[in-house]
Structures are given as C-alpha cells and as structure tokens.
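Practice problem 4.
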C-alpha cells in the first residue's frame, strides 16, 4: 500500500482518479509468455523461478491497491488473455467513454 499512500500524500485531491485500469492475466499464461520471451530476450531473469517470484511480489504489493480501487468502484478490468487487437479495442473503449 506504500505506492497508494505515496500518491495520496503527494497528489491527494490535486488530481481526479477516473479509474484504475487492470489487465488481468492468469499466472499460468504469464509464465508461458515470459518463458517464451526468455528464449530470445537474453534476460537472465526470464526463468521460471524469477517469474514466479515476480508474480508473488505483484500479488503481495500491487493486488492490495487493485482491491482498494475495486472497493471504491474505480477498477476497470480487461482480460489480457485475448488477442492484442481485442485488448486494445477494450482499452480504447474505456478511454473513449470518459
């Protein structure tokens, strides 16, 4: 919650948060994508252990903020399992509706 608290202390009411955009993707799909990327990226951290550690960190540090925005009715979720074109169309529609 440190990022959220930092935002509140610096920005506070100076900006209106219209919504929080969350791209949802199952861990199994993320693993598959990152391991595939690791075949050509040259990144040392695109291995199963590092990927799982990153996902755990995300769950612990970011999901509480996502949940907070959901409780406030400000969360907009898009499944990122769909095609790139479908995800873009859904994303674009959210912003066009503002």
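Answer key:
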């Amino acid at each position: 919650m440190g990022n959220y608290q930092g935002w509140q202390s610096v920005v506070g009411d100076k900006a209106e948060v219209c919504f929080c955009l969350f791209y949802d993707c199952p861990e199994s799909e993320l693993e598959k994508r990152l391991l595939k990327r690791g075949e050509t990226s040259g990144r040392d951290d695109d291995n199963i252990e590092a990927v799982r550690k990153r996902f755990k960190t995300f769950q612990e540090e970011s999901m509480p903020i996502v949940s907070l925005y959901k409780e406030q009715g400000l969360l907009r979720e898009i499944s990122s399992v769909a095609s790139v074109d479908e995800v873009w169309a859904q994303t674009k529609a959210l912003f066009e509706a503002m």
